[in-house]
Amino acid sequence: MFIKTFKIRSKYLILSFAIFLIIILPIIVIPAIRNTPNTIGYLPNGETSDFLELWNIDTFEGGSSSRSVFLEKIAIDFENQNRGVYVIVKNLTKEQAQLQLEQGYEPDMVSFGIGAGDLFVDYLDELSSTYSVKSDLKNGGVYQGKQLAIPWCMGGYVLCSKNEVDTSKLLGNTENLIGFGQESTITLKALPSNTYAKSSIFASCLENYTQYQAYQDFLQNKFEILIGTQRDYFRLQNRISTGSIECNFSFLEEYSDLLQWIGIFKNDKEKTTVNAFIEFLLSPEQQKKLSRLGMFSTNGTKVYDDIEHQEYIEFEKSVNKITKTANAFLTYEEIKREQQNVLAKLFK
Question: Is the dihedral of CA 42, 45, 50, 56 positive or negative?
Answer without folding.
Answer: positive
